[in-house]
Amino acid sequence: MLQNRIVGVRECSPKQVVKALLLINPSNPLGDIYSPELLLDIFSFCNEQNLHVIMDEVYALSVFNGSPEFYSTLKFPVLPNKNKVHVLYGISKDFGIAGLRIGAIHTRCKPLKNCLKQLSFFHDIPFPVMDIAAKFVDDLDWLKMYLSIYRQRISEKFKESIDYCKRMGLNVRDSSGGFFLWLDFRPRLPINLNTAPKGFLSAHQLALLIKIQLTLFGLGASFYTLSTGSDNIT
């Protein structure tokens, strides 16, 4: 499906130039974990199409107990075009410290590295922030303990959230990572979706969220879903 979409855009709309493919692994908003086999297929296809691949692994450690193992792009010994594969990571999600804006990009593309070096001159990370991050990243014993507790807690909370939403009559898509739910509101919508007035869905879904006391709501349309009434919450 992905290959067909990209090729279709290039064939039908020559002016819409596709330069790169951006992926999030584990996926946001679905929480899927891409298998090594699927990743290699994607890299091979992008190499054939002369596309860059930007892989965001910001949720790399936020995987549930019993889920498929997360396989980082950096673990592949060989890539079809290593100079066009770029990996992103930041500590704000996995460690729950959104206030510490620290991220990294791993790339072998020299023009991109040169560009980033120029930009980073104006966006240095403050030394106190770097010092805080370095201390807990260097403590391997603490990291092992933290990740064990963290994954157990997000697994438990995810199950609790699913059970609660199901009691509210909402279907929840199964997930393997991240901390968001993909909900199907259609069983609770008291109107034919094909004849719903503009703005009705978002208002009605928001009312349901207030009722179940959830805070961050993303309309499915924002994620280009093909199913009206399917939305994301965090």
TrEMBL record:
GO terms for biological process: amino acid metabolic process. Residues 10-188 form the Aminotransferase class I/classII large domain. PANTHER family: AMINOTRANSFERASE CLASS I_CLASSII DOMAIN-CONTAINING PROTEIN, BIFUNCTIONAL ASPARTATE AMINOTRANSFERASE AND GLUTAMATE/ASPARTATE-PREPHENATE AMINOTRANSFERASE-RELATED. GO terms for molecular function: pyridoxal phosphate binding; transaminase activity. PROSITE patterns: AA_TRANSFER_CLASS_1. The keyword Cytoplasm does not apply. InterPro entries: Aminotransferase_I/II_large (IPR004839), Ethylene_sulfur-biosynth (IPR050478), NHTrfase_class1_PyrdxlP-BS (IPR004838), PyrdxlP-dep_Trfase (IPR015424), PyrdxlP-dep_Trfase_major (IPR015421), PyrdxlP-dep_Trfase_small (IPR015422). CDD domains: AAT_like (cd00609). This is Putative inactive 1-aminocyclopropane-1-carboxylate synthase-like protein 2. Keywords: Pyridoxal phosphate. It comes from the Eukaryota. Belongs to the class-I pyridoxal-phosphate-dependent aminotransferase family.
